[in-house]
Amino acid sequence: MVRTRGILMAALLAFFATGCFEVEQSIELKRDLSGTANFKLGVDMEPMVIIMAKVQKEMSGDKSPLTAAEIAAAKADFKKNEKKSSAVKEDPRKEAEGGLPPGVKLLDVAVQEKEFGVTTNMKFAFDKLSSLVGVKLGTKKEGEGPADPTKKSVIDTPFEGLELSETATTISIHTKPQNPAEKVKSEAGEQGPPMDADTEKMMNDAFKNMRVAWKITAPFEVVSSNATRKEGNTLIWEYDFAKLQKLAASKKGLDDMGVKVTYKK
Fold this sequence. Notes:
8 helices; about 260 residues; elongated
């Protein structure tokens, strides 16, 4: 059990170096199906700091609850280590520009630092919607050297699975929202034995506040969609941790709960 938790802890640390609790993808289409796309990653490390402190305490043989002093010490250590690492952070523009496929251009990158995390917003322009599938983050341009394999992102292909199909009269778009928790579970599973119930609960606690959203804005009449809600011409799909877990377990997840909309041309 201790070894399994150690493996999971390593996986969580690797992914949460640039991992996220809040994910938002949005697309704004023009009539010729070109347009712009936004990708937002929001990191809140405070819950993870506390969970890691709890795991370390249990691994030392002490299963008593964390004291206020221990929590404060864990937060102080995190801030100190984060301050040291912040001096050598990669330029976020370089992290994105190296993995752009033909027909996609990076328009802007904005990074907002927080006390226990960071929010990164990226905006792309695309000639055709299908080109977005090839966007890969964390890939350096040719001649800049290889990417650092220790700096993993839980989502490095933000528009993976995005599909568009057309008929003479309609345009259909569908995709499946990515679930960071499932990727961390997979990484931990590759490195060791299956999780015990307590370890899985710990991981679920780390992701319980996770939010994922998809937004599509288009100048077309909606024939059908399974969007959570609508604001003007924008359709919005929203997922919390429970809904993402249900989606992962569903064999018909894409049809029942994935992003799906059909427009009239």
